């Protein structure tokens, strides 16, 4: 009998990558939905609100938006992972 690959863990392997599962996070700044973006899916340049530097294509990062406005694309922000984790120690910068 041939071996079965079990890497899917109960869901099709392409669903998580295509849809980008969001997880809920809470902090002093409120409730957030956060989605990890792998470098292979990062195809555009974004500006991180934490450090005001660009996130280049191919760089893994996170997308975060307020949990109470889950459908609002305008409220989504792309952050470097380290900047997102440090957001409570430093506030987002204003764009110059």
TrEMBL record:
This is ATP/GTP-binding protein. It comes from Amycolatopsis acididurans. It comes from the Bacteria.
């Amino acid at each position: 009998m041939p071996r079965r690959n079990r890497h899917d863990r109960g869901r099709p392997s392409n669903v998580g990558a295509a849809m980008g599962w969001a997880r809920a996070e809470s902090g002093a700044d409120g409730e957030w939905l956060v989605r990890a973006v792998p470098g292979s899916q990062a195809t555009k340049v974004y500006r991180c609100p934490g450090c005001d530097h660009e996130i280049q294509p191919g760089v893994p990062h996170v997308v975060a938006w307020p949990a109470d406005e889950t459908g609002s694309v305008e409220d989504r922000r792309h952050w470097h992972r380290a900047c997102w984790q440090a957001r409570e120690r430093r506030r987002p910068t204003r764009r110059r």
